Amino acid sequence: MAYKGAISFGLVYIPITMNVSVKENDIGFNLIDKKTMSRIKYKKTCVDCDNKEVKKENIVKGYRYEKDKYVIFTDKDFENLKSPKDKNISIEQFVNLDEVDPIYFDKTYYITPNGAEKAFNVLLTAMEKQKKAGIAKTVLGTKEVLILIRAQNGNMLASTLYFFDEIQKKPEIKKGKVDSKELKLATNLIEQMTTPFEPSKFKDEYTNKVKKAIKQKIAGKKIVEAKDSPAPEKVINLMEALKKSLNSHSTKETKKQVKTKTSPKTNKKQANKYYSA
User: According to CATH, what is the number of the domain 3-24+80-166?
Assistant: First the structure.
């Protein structure tokens, strides 16, 4: 569902629309009683009235302030709490984009202007030129959210951010002494495996397998255990694992280059190897 509002910074006011930037490819499964093959449904019932089912229009939001005592909040109550500022996306400051740790990112939206295109394009161009991002706050639904507004390849994006107190404390990691030879091998391996990031190269292979399995089930076929690739070999010694990984990657790259010139077929016999601590 699109969000219609406005971005404001200083005295500049830009009406905008925000549309979600991603769609999830989840496959929906129903819960079924395996004996009757009937769907399992969840009913909303009243605890103090013999579990009688309650209609949607009779369900409201309540906050429990004492045992069995609630105060009711309606949609109008939440709307009345919003100030004009809460209803808009008010930029409070600009930051260097690389200062924002990705751990804070939640959902991302495309922003398009709903009028005031000139002001929109000026803001977009200025942010992209300076590599700056705007930090703003607004209320979406019944929750105040922190938003990062950024420019990317001529588009304006808004990413909702987690607040500082929502980020869990990171676990303690015991740091030991790093062997210089192992570090050099690891660095070389990283360099060998470094290529430009191309999102289109990565496919959701498991979901495709599930879709294929659904068709097989419909056709009455049994799903057999997947054995299309060998299990990875465990290498106990770190130095040995790094050396074998480097050699394996070099061999794969050489074969890939040769096959690109001679044949479109790929070799699936090459086993992956990893270090097991």
Answer: 2.40.290.10
